[in-house]
Write a structure and sequence with these properties.
TIM Barrel; 25% strand; homodimer; 11 helices; eight-stranded parallel sheet; ten-stranded mixed sheet
Chain lengths: 374, 374
């Protein structure tokens, strides 16, 4: 049994579940005639990236220049850095653009000028549009500014206006299909409006939209050219709460040894804390926090039966996790047992762990283990 | 200026502030006639560890076996792993104990038996006492169980009963001097009671107590033999909120480039998110969350003037930080500027960053960069 070989906290990867998530999304993209530009910030793994390549994917998104280089060195040459350009990294960006078809995201004229002067090789420029998340992006109604930026981009031979990019991040706050759908419709409407307005002058412009809830739950992507979800490869308790996946779609689980038990209060203590799970949590109906929920190990994975009644993590300190059980579930483990926990936010858990162990016991690489090499 | 050379998020270490924190605590320990066993889980750095050694410290605490080995390899040979023993790591513990005087923490008879049979070299055994934190530890009133464990330890030639160890972690919830003091008095009373009871049979037993609020704010440590704080070397906004330090004692700050600004809502967007800061936060009086607060860079560090009116981080996603300014403070930065932020919880921020840059521009190592070597 794969857990028998483990002694310390590890992030377990169920390859079959993750590959099924990928296959499902690929089928949906084919049906909707939309290209997939998967966001690799979730898995951050060359090995997992290769599954996508074998499925015919040749374009990706990442969140920073170090991650771009990590994947470039594994043969990925069409890379969008889906964060606003950090102009302090102009030399790094120029170097990356020598080897990759780089897509960059901008929102102001000054950044366009700095890129225009600093980049010798061709770079694709996306205008980031705020479809309601209020994190970053241009107000889609501010046509004056958008016109000005598009003209400015055209001014520089190394820059090509590629299109409009948006992230409907506010869908992560949704708790029902209808909410996700309403947010998605609004995003599509905003982006279609922009597309229509600029299509005559820029016939090759594209619309890039990225969020896992819409990609997971919906089937109509209107005039979107590429979808940019990341989390769907693993999913997690947060996506389950939104309704973007089923419990059995969640493809990673934290393995944590039980290091103490407290029969008086039906609690276990795990070696597994904030530096392993990250501190994202769900608020339960009764007001308590949930930092992860237990699943039952099987020979080659885990079972999510009775998930809603399973013990859950009520608190995390640096390396401790506190688990609240009932009188019944308390009997399920004792010190020395290895237990399995679905994470609340798999992107952050994977980043914190910096590596995976598959359910067949193989280690899988993660960019985090290479951050200091950059 | 040290920030000029930086392009990406980095954790800045102010050596002078950190060394002053160390000197202050060392002076206090001398005065109170208590030994310091600093908890290295906060800085996790061999270079910073050497400051302690140069100050005459020869014993440390860590949270896991990997960290124990990292410091052992730098010459530390008296190491307490201040987490409940994970019996799945018995082989690793046995190996560590061949090279170091290892202190282990236990709470149940089964673990004593496993250690007793598995450890060939001498190991010190601490009984963990719950002084009210309700995370881990034996109920100090359960003398029957404590007697049983002490007898059990004595049964094994490789195990030596070293004494009682406690962590008054509930002091982190305190928000006033009186609360920290009350928690500390209660801890001292519990531990003194146990010391008196077992002293006759175990004249060499020690009391080990660890929490930064008490170590930082109080001067009376009663019959405590060793203090085990960790966070005091850096402090952070959480300790400032408790009253355990002054703003100018905080010795680390996150450097984050501004990557976007939103004049309409007086917000900046930083490259600096959950994977850099961690997601611990403070709840402000008006209900908003604070994930970090801005300080003003100086030639060789930073100034905390007007800290309470400074912009603060209201939200973090994976790599973005959202900063709320006023109309006035909004003018302080624009895209491309490098800004500085005091972290809420420096232990987690240091762990997330896995390295430091000093205010003179030198890189300082962190165990996280070596986790995958173990």
């Amino acid at each position: 049994m794969y857990l028998d070989m483990l002694a310390r906290p590890e992030l377990i990867l169920d390859e079959a579940r993750a590959k099924a998530n990928l296959d499902h999304l690929l089928a949906k993209c084919r049906k909707a005639d939309v290209r997939l530009r998967p966001h690799f910030k979730t898995h951050q793994s060359r090995a997992i990236g290769r599954w996508f390549r074998e499925a015919g994917i040749d374009r990706i998104a990442v969140t920073n220049t170090g991650m771009a280089r990590y994947f470039l060195e594994d043969g990925w040459t069409d890379i969008t850095i889906a964060m606003p350009v950090n102009v302090r990294e102009i030399a790094t960006l120029a170097d990356l653009s020598r080897h990759a078809q780089l897509g960059l995201m901008i929102m102001d004229a000054n950044t366009v000028d700095i890129l225009g002067s600093g980049m010798a090789d061709p770079v694709s420029i996306w205008l980031k549009i705020d479809v309601g998340t209020r994190r970053t992006g241009l107000d889609p109604r501010d046509i004056g500014l958008i016109d000005q930026l598009v003209d400015r981009i055209a001014h520089y031979p190394s820059l090509t206006f590629r299109g409009f990019l948006a992230h409907a991040g506010h869908s992560y706050g949704a708790r029902a299909f209808r909410e996700v759908e309403a947010i998605h419709r609004e995003s599509l409407s905003i982006l279609s409006g922009l597309r229509s307005r600029y299509m005559a002058a820029w016939p090759h412009l594209e619309i890039s939209l990225g969020d896992t809830p819409a990609a997971g739950m919906l089937w109509d992507f209107g005039q979107v050219d590429e979808l940019r979800p990341g989390n769907f490869i693993f999913y997690d308790l947060m996506q389950l709460g939104i309704g973007a996946c089923q419990a059995d779609d969640i493809a990673v689980a934290m393995a944590c040894p039980v290091i103490a038990v407290h029969p008086d209060r039906h609690q276990w203590v795990l070696h597994g804390g904030a530096i392993h799970f990250s501190k994202d949590h769900l608020q339960l109906a009764d007001g308590r926090k949930c930092f992860g929920r237990m699943v039952m190990p099987t020979q080659d994975g885990w079972s999510t039966d009775s998930l809603e009644h399973a013990p859950f993590l009520t608190g995390l300190s640096q390396e401790h996790g506190i688990v609240q059980c009932t009188a019944d579930t308390f009997q399920l483990a004792r010190p020395g047992d290895m237990t399995l926990w679905l994470p609340v936010h798999s992107c952050l858990t994977a980043d914190a762990m910096g590596g995976y162990v598959t359910t067949s016991g193989e280690r899988v690489d993660h960019y985090r283990a290479h951050v200091n090499e950059q």
